[in-house]
Write a structure and sequence with these properties.
Blueprint lengths: L1 H11 L2 H21 L7
Length: 42
């Protein structure tokens, strides 16, 4: 369900905002990886 909502939201977003959204989402993922020990992050 979340994927459907995210895809619909992304389709309505301009390319620029889409890139910013990806940066924020990627930043959160990296933050989660930093919180948990992961050999790939180093």
């Amino acid at each position: 369900m979340k994927r459907l909502k995210i895809e619909d939201f992304e389709n309505k977003m301009p390319v620029f905002l889409h890139k910013v959204f990806l940066k924020i989402a990627f930043g959160r993922i990296m933050g989660l990886r930093r919180a948990s020990p992961d050999p790939r992050s180093s």
